[in-house]
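Suppose a colleague, Dr. K., hands you the sequence of a protein chain of 361 amino acids and asks what its three-dimensional shape might be. Before reaching for any lab equipment, you can write down a predicted structure in token form. Begin with the sequence itself:
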Amino acid sequence: MPYTHIDRRTLLKVSLAAGTVSAMPAFARPVAASDLPAAFSEATGHTVSGVFLEWWLANNRKAKVGQPVTEPATRDGRTIQYFEYGAVETDDLARGDVTQVDVGGEYLADHPATPPDDGIIQDPIDRIAETWRFNGGEDRFGATLLDPVITDDKVVQWYERGAVAIATGGVEGTAHVVPVGQDLARSRRVSTTKVKRGDLDLLAPVFAGDGQFTLADQGFDPVELYLPDLSIDAAVETIGVTDGVMGTPSEPLDVGWYGDYARPGDQNTVVIAGHVDWYTIGAAVFYTLRDAAPGMMFYVLAGDGAAATYQCVDAYALGENASGDNILRGTSVDSLALITCTGSFADGHYDQRQIVYAERI
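The predicted structure, expressed as tokens, is then:
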């Protein structure tokens, strides 16, 4: 069973002066083992303990730092731990306040970057913006640190608490959140060597649902999607992505689940698509998805009737050429993305895609 202690949050801001970022100490040493409450990440082979565990359980849904990639270490009298997409620190692992490290500033201090003189074409920047918004926007990443740069054949946009990158190559590029944690830990000489689980519980978020369905307590393949506020109750087909093109359900009143990406319970984004209309019947399964609004409850059901409950947090439109992989890329939290067509219809297709994003509760 997952450890369930909860609560603590603070955000740390990094100082910027004349376009530069001041570096933090480059060396850190391991923290001695303790008897603090702890949990083990099966995905990365590291533990989280004490107030870091409390913070992760309470805040990872918003901060999206992902799984731990180091054990706690000390530097300059404080304890720090690196995660896939970020880092946190405290002055007391047992009971101190936790602050989120501005890893973007730290990374740039170790790896200076300069914007190119000739600029960057607009398409990669647009795709970076799509991925930035889908993965939490300013709430997650903080302020922009500098203009996009080109590093190792990638266009990279740096923010206070992370980065989004896209391979150069025009419209075929796929943007993604950069997993800066491990590289930054190594540059700061913090060990990334995996540890043994022992008898620790597995690190996992704690969900309570809203009482409408039996709570699913493990990952599952969905069979039904129920959106009561939108009068949607649909069977789920399994579909896929071929050569970057997202498939669609075969029936107008079914929805399609991209089963190769994530299931409910996988701490990643579950993606489900549906038609907005159909040439023989008119309105199709996701016709009312345009009315989705933050706060609505969505239910994804397993074959045994148990469910994962999600709450809508955002709804927006993307251009018709928005990369499917941008949408399917993981957010490191158990979340749900619903997709259909929207905008103007001409020459047999719509010119936009409607995205409705929800997070599990």
